[in-house]
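Changelog entry: the Threonine/homoserine efflux transporter RhtA record was regenerated in this release. Current contents:
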Amino acid sequence: MSAGTTRSDHLSLSQQAAPSRFTALLWGLLGLCIWSGSFVLTRFGVKSNLTAYDIIALRFSTGGLLLLPVLFKTGLGLDRLGRSGFILLVCGAGAPYALLTAIGLRFAPASQAAALTPGLMTVLVALFGIFLLKEMLPKRGWFGIALILTGAFAVASQSFESGQSYGHLAFLTAAILWAAFVIAVRRSGISALHATAIAAVISAIFYMPLYLVFFDKNITTAPLNDILTQAIYQGIFTTIIGLVAFNRAVAGLGAAAGSALSSLIPVVTMILGIIFLQEMPSLTELIATLLIISGVLCLTLIRKPR
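Regenerated structure tokens:
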């Protein structure tokens, strides 16, 4: 999932032949379904045969291997990112972010993860942009922030009774990491694919030894079908195809409309959660999700492509 695109993304996209609006919409819907499905599949995995550590290992070992040629071609980007930007990129789009999301899904439903994480990401990116990049936010943007925070508080208010607060805390921390990643990429101007390659390959290099030596794992006893499903979906679809689909949607629809598609992630995830996980949202969750979606739309639709 992406909370925003970088300046170089827009430049590189404008240099390509933009797809038709219908084709771009199909690309956007593909990316939307992929990222929504990632929440559901991760939730299913951590509730069944695999640990959160297993899923992250499968995701980045697969994605890192496939994106290794990209990193060889483009390099680590330290000259543009700097040391701090490089660390924020790897933490915000790599194993730390993904691990926090997976751990959170052990405690809270996929629908709550899909509502809280993208919503809070959008708020944090906007706030970081104001204070760090000196970006102005109009009144409608502040109204969007208020809607998202109201919805997030409504979701969190249920956690004290249901024991989901650990999951919500993990989602909040993951959103902070992702927002820091977006700001680092914006300031550096590197492309989305380059950033993804850095995060995936470096995560695999550092995470896999820790996973093999220290972390709990069920991968040796889990069914092969579960292992292959997580490896293919998380490593290929979530990490690579979802990114390509989002960028093609932005190329044909424009940055604001393309980014606004991410506001539909909670809805699609909620529907998939009902179908595949039998997780029925409460009335409070439904209202909170609508508030968060409205807030994300307020924040994304006010931004014009550069």
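The mean pLDDT is 84.
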